[in-house]
Structures are given as structure tokens and as C-alpha cells.
Design a protein that fits this description.
α4 (82-89) runs parallel beside α5, α10 crosses α14 and α14 runs parallel beside α16 (365-382). This protein has helices spanning 14-25, 41-51, 64-70, 82-89, 107-115, 126-141, 151-160, 185-188, 193-196, 206-214, 216-228, 267-275, 306-317, 321-337, 345-356, 365-382; strands at residues 4-9, 30-37, 55-58, 77-80, 96-99, 119-122, 145-148, 168-175, 236-240, 246-252, 257-261. 44% of the residues lie in helices and 15% in strands. The radius of gyration is 20 Å and the shape is globular. β6, α6 (126-141) and β7 (145-148) form a beta-alpha-beta unit. It folds into two domains: 4-148, Rossmann fold (3-Layer(aba) Sandwich); 154-264 and 301-317, no CATH class. With 385 residues, it is α/β, with parallel strands linked by helices.
């Protein structure tokens, strides 16, 4: 395999740091071309000194001088600000973008890479939740390749290799159920951030950990899957699978079901996306069938975890509704992590925002940006952020 140059957007987050572990373990196959971070200048500097990329971006402009000075003795170019993300995404010097920026902020640089016809390892699900129609059409127009990094979508992608001419009956996205599986509202009303951040199976960042606890993560994944795999909402099912061993399944028209299995470790789908179409030997822990194992499956409790219901409705309505859903959710999660609102208040805030923002059936890219801003402003006003 020819050595690949990797641009990691969001290198200080959970996906980014694990991607660098994969690169470090395979120095003859991968090299770091670009690293970006929003605020964590200390870790970005450490990463840049170790991997010596061509360029780094620190989003927080107040930290530019610190990063610039720390890397003054290297050949690494230092950029800052939101526009710099698009600027470096426009470089010709990388082969693969690993899109790991959390939330709506990942849309612009990811779309720029798509427009450049790049290979994108997509870990930022919000890019497709917000503007999936525009991003996927741009990928077709510019011959860009999008390889999902989310464990569930990577599983679907892997199940579909060699099956492209065989129609899908439906896909089944598995969800662990998060730390509050089986709990009811009278318990959830008292949940604090430290409880919600403790996912039973996965080691993830704060935003996605909260989304997993509310089941919003699975709702966003449904919308992402619709665009990634060109599915109708009726072809997407969610099941609770507490062990997180089966990462997702594909049901074909003949009734055959393919599942991708493995221990819950994000380095596997990260490595798969970067090395595709090859598989690389590694030392990751293996799942053992010679020990007593039970794999459980159940229906999600959408009466208690209403975020999944709201996301399903948004997927069916389409237009700018998923964009509203995502924006309101980002504000809600931020407020919950700051102890400004309770666990169940997040769903109420999202629901009120969905009711408030005007529906646009066929949004332009500019409509999406305006919708995002309006939804954030309204959601923030509900909690005086």
C-alpha cells in the first residue's frame, strides 16, 4: 500500500487522538499532513512536535501566538480562525481527510474536501444530519469518496462491500442503550453530568457521550445513514444491543442478514477507513467465542428517551428540520454539561425549538446556515445562555 498523507480535523478529540495512535503504529503506511484543534493548544503543540505535519490550525485565535512560538523551530505552518479550516481543507497535499470535528462546525471544511474530490473518513455525523442532500450530491459531482468512521456506519459499509448490486431491504443500527438503559423518567430527572458521561462500553468525548445517554446519538445516526446509503426512513431500524458487539446489520431482499462484529474499539473503524480497501494487521483486542457470551436485543424505549422519537420525526419530515434538531441539541448538551439544565430538560428544549423554527422543504446551503443560527439563538434564549 502506498503511503497515505492524513489530514486530521479535530486531532485533539477522541477520534483524532485514536487516529494518531493508528498512524503511530503504522509509520510506513501513514503520515500526518494536517492537524487542527479548536481550543486545546497544549495537546495540539505536543502532537505537532511528535508528528511534524505540514500545517496546523488552532481555531481559537487568542492561542495563535502560543502555538506559533512553540512550533517556530519546525517547518510546520500555523493557521488560526474558522476560515483557516476551509483554507487547509483546500490543500492538495493530503490524501485523506479524517473529519473528526464535533458538531456543525465540521460542515464547512468537510464540504470543502468533498468539493476537492478528496477521500473523507467521516466521523462527523452532523455534516450529513444538517446538509446530507448537498454533501452527498457534491460527492457525486466531484467524485469524492466518503468512508464512514462511526462504528455503526462503518459496520454497514463493511457489510455492503461486494454487495453493491444487491438491493437492501433494511439496515439495523445497534445501540447500547447508554448508561441509563431501562431507567424511567423518575430516575432520569435527577441525573447529573458525571453520571451521563460514564458510557458502559465506549470511550468517547463529552458531546457524543451525552448524546448516547439520551439516545439522540442513535437518532442522528439514522439521519446520517439515510444519506450515506441512499435509504428511505422506512428502511432504517434501531435495536438496543447492550453488549455493543454487533455494530450494525444489513438485511437483504432474500432475507439474509449480514452483521459486523467486534469489541467496542473506535480504532478499528478509524484504521479501516484510512486503509480502505485493504485491512491491516493490528494488535487490537479480539472478541472470544470460547467464553460464555450472551447477545441481547430489544426495542428502544422511545417514551422515556424521546430524543430518538424527535430525530425519527425529523428524518421523515426532512428539509431543514434535521438541521434545527441538531442545532437545538448542541445547545441543550452544552447547557447540560455546564449544569444549566437537567437531563430531561434537554428534550423539552429541542422540542420547543423544533416547533418554533420555520420549515423549509428544499433548503440551500445558505438556508442551512441561517436555520442553524436561528435555532441556536432560540434554544439559547430558553435558558438565558
Amino acid at each position: 500500500m502506498q503511503k497515505k498523507r492524513i489530514a486530521i480535523f479535530g486531532s485533539t478529540g477522541s477520534i483524532g487522538t485514536q487516529a494518531l495512535e493508528v498512524i503511530k503504529a503504522n509509520p510506513t503506511l501513514f503520515e500526518v499532513e494536517i492537524l487542527t484543534a479548536q481550543t486545546n493548544d497544549t495537546l495540539l503543540i505536543k502532537q505537532a512536535l511528535e508528528f511534524v505535519p505540514n500545517a496546523v490550525v488552532i481555531g481559537d485565535e487568542s492561542k495563535f501566538a502560543v502555538v506559533k512560538n512553540a512550533l517556530a523551530q519546525t517547518n510546520t505552518k500555523v493557521f488560526t480562525g474558522e476560515d483557516a479550516l476551509e483554507e487547509v481543507a483546500n490543500f492538495d497535499t493530503y490524501d485523506i481527510m479524517l473529519a473528526g470535528i464535533v458538531g456543525f462546525a465540521g460542515l464547512k471544511p468537510t464540504l470543502k474536501a468533498v468539493q476537492k474530490g478528496k477521500i473523507i473518513g467521516l466521523a462527523n455525523k452532523e455534516t450529513l444530519v444538517v446538509a446530507g442532500d448537498i454533501v452527498m450530491q457534491s460527492a457525486i459531482d466531484n467524485n469524492a469518496t466518503i468512508i464512514p468512521v462511526d462504528s455503526e456506519h462503518s459496520a454497514i459499509f463493511q457489510c455492503l462491500v461486494g454487495e453493491y448490486k444487491n438491493p437492501i431491504e433494511k439496515i439495523i443500527l445497534t445501540a447500547s442503550g447508554g448508561p441509563f438503559l431501562g431507567k424511567k423518567p423518575n430516575f432520569l430527572v435527577n441525573v447529573k453530568r458525571e453520571h451521563a458521561l460514564k458510557h458502559p462500553n465506549w470511550d468517547m468525548g463529552a458531546k457524543i457521550s451525552i448524546d448516547s445517554a439520551t439516545l439522540m446519538n442513535k437518532g442522528l445516526e439514522m439521519i446520517e445513514a439515510k444519506w450515506l446509503f441512499n435509504l428511505s426512513p422506512e428502511q432504517i431500524q434501531v435495536v438496543i444491543h447492550p453488549q455493543s458487539i454487533i455494530h450494525s446489520m444489513v438485511v437483504f431482499e432474500d432475507g439474509s442478514i449480514k452483521a459486523q462484529m467486534g469489541l467496542p474499539d473506535m480504532k478499528l473503524p478509524i484504521q479501516y477507513a484510512m486503509a480502505f480497501p485493504q485491512r491491516l494487521k493490528n494488535e487490537f483486542p479480539r472478541y472470544h467465542f470460547d467464553k460464555p457470551n450472551v447477545l441481547n436485543f430489544d426495542e428502544p424505549d422511545i417514551k422515556t428517551f424521546r430524543n430518538l422519537h424527535l430525530a425519527t420525526e425529523a428524518m421523515h419530515k426532512g428539509g431543514n428540520v434535521p438541521c434545527v434538531l441538531n442545532a437545538a441539541n448542541e445547545i441543550a448538551v452544552y447547557a447540560f454539561l455546564k449544569n444549566r439544565i437537567g437531563f430531561l430538560d434537554m428534550t423539552d428544549l429541542i422540542e420547543r425549538t423544533l416547533e418554533k423554527i420555520e420549515y423549509i422543504a428544499h433548503p440551500t446551503l445558505n438556508d442551512y446556515f441561517e436555520t442553524d443560527g436561528e435555532a441556536r439563538s432560540f434554544a439559547a434564549s430558553l435558558i438565558q445562555l
